[in-house]
Design a protein that fits this description.
Layout lengths: L1 E8 L5 E8 L11 H9 L5 H12 L12 H6 L5 H5 L10 E4 L2 E4 L10 H19 L3 H15 L27 H8 L4 H21 L18 H9 L7 H6 L2 H22 L1
Antiparallel strand pairs: 1-2, 3-4
Helix pairs in contact: 1-2, 1-8, 5-6, 5-9, 6-7
Length: 279
């Protein structure tokens, strides 16, 4: 966290000061304020100074009203506290662990997507790429349909008999992923407010980038999602890995994402080593 001292002069010339503690990293953001920060961050209509002032106001949380009493020069002199939001997106903490949609409660993945299964990743990332592609094509309605499906993969109801101390606890509060229920649950996700949807999207983007950075041999070009047509390659990868060391489709589907990625990264390193030695 970081501290800033704000001084406000009233009409009689008397100065009143207050010290505000505000976040200095993405993971320190107030969960109640974060979704609104995400919406500003993702806004396509960005003018840096205006964006910085909006973010500064949100970072102040309960003190946000003081901005209305400050001269513009004072506000501009304090905008440095927003620098971390522009420098690097490295949010890994899930600041929106639970959402209410369609009158139901849905739980999201753990921090860093650490409890995602491989099949969840395959579906979620395919829907996410399709959403981004259609949004860049300004096809908003079909884009939102894929966004709803993406959210329905990640956010699911709580297990009825959830017990984190049980012997057979699998580390996930959510019911097991079932692709046959995506369409129905996506209808509920459509009720989520835009700022909540933006918050989940931004967190996923950040976790996704970390996954790419941590597995450079799987993502050698570190390619960003662009306006090009996505190829849904992860479903093809799932098909290729079926019957390998992870067993059949059911076993592979339930395997933790990072277990699969570790194996894929290791195999790519070995393959490139043997290829280099051969030449």
């Amino acid at each position: 966290m970081q501290e800033i001292k704000i001084e406000i002069k009233n009409r009689s010339g008397k100065v009143r000061s207050c010290t505000c503690k505000i976040a200095s990293t993405w993971n320190e953001l107030d969960p109640d304020v974060y979704p609104y920060i995400a919406s500003v961050y993702l806004s396509p209509y960005k003018e840096k100074m205006h964006t910085a002032v909006s973010l500064f106001t949100l970072l102040l949380c309960k003190h946000h009203q003081v901005v209305n009493y400050l001269p513009a020069t004072d506000v501009h002199s304090m905008l440095f506290v927003t620098d971390f939001l522009f420098e690097k997106l490295d949010l890994t903490t899930n600041l929106i662990p639970v959402v209410k949609a369609g009158g139901k409660e849905y739980h999201g993945p753990k921090d860093e997507l650490e409890n995602l299964t491989f099949i969840e990743w395959c579906f979620a990332d395919s829907y996410f790429e399709r959403y981004v592609f259609l949004k860049k094509q300004e096809q908003q309605d079909p884009a939102n349909e894929y966004l709803d499906k993406f959210l329905a993969v990640l956010y699911r109801p709580k297990k009825q008999s959830y017990d984190p101390l049980a012997i057979d606890h699998d580390g996930d509060i959510r019911v097991r992923f079932n692709e046959n229920l995506i369409k129905e649950r996506a209808k509920d996700m459509n009720y989520l407010p835009c700022h909540i949807r933006d918050g989940i999207v931004l967190w996923y983007m950040s976790c996704r980038q970390k996954i790419e950075n941590d597995h450079p041999h799987i993502f050698p070009q570190k390619k960003k999602i662009s306006g090009s047509e996505p190829d849904f390659g992860w479903m093809g990868v799932f098909d290729e890995l079926t019957g390998d060391k992870f067993g059949g489709q059911d076993e592979l589907a339930r395997t933790n994402l990072f277990t699969v990625l570790f194996s894929m990264e290791r195999n790519q390193i070995k393959f490139k080593k043997y290829k280099n030695e051969a030449y």
